[in-house]
Amino acid sequence: MKTRCLQTSGMTLTETMVSCAVSVVVLGVLVFGLMSFQRSFLASAHHASSQAAQLRLLDYVAMDLRRSLSVTSRADGGVDVDIPDYYQSAGSLIPRTPQLVNGKVTYGTVPQRVSYYRRGQSVYRMAGGVETALATDVAGFDLTFPADLNQAVLKVTVRFQPRYSLSAGSRDGTSLSTSVLLRGRKNAG
Q: Where are the domains of the chain?
């Protein structure tokens, strides 16, 4: 009778340790890559939301400045804007019927005051006693009044600080600006 030699196949201890080391290196690279991807995604999302907030803020400011009766700079770097009282009551969407008085179209009797200002890293709009944060993570909110009021153009610039950076140092964020033609009687001061 022939005897068969049974061989058991397997890996040696050295082969097992080498394969474990290679697996750890590959998993480490994958984890580092996923963390970098997540950080990049969050930075991109913050950048996109900051740009949307910049545009929303500039749209609000431009809208109120275009329909303003008077514009006054504030000591804190903001601006107060008096606009016609277009609606019957605060928060209502029911418009007033315009009246023709002394050759001028008027809405209501008392203009409404709207204020824009920066406090901390946020820019606020105060209208009818209600304060609304229009933008956060703001690095700068600048209003440049014209030297000659006959030009009546106000430049508004808003800058955001990026939330993420590769180094610990600070870097510039996005910046948008707009120039608005002031149409009514203006008081800059």
A: 40-181
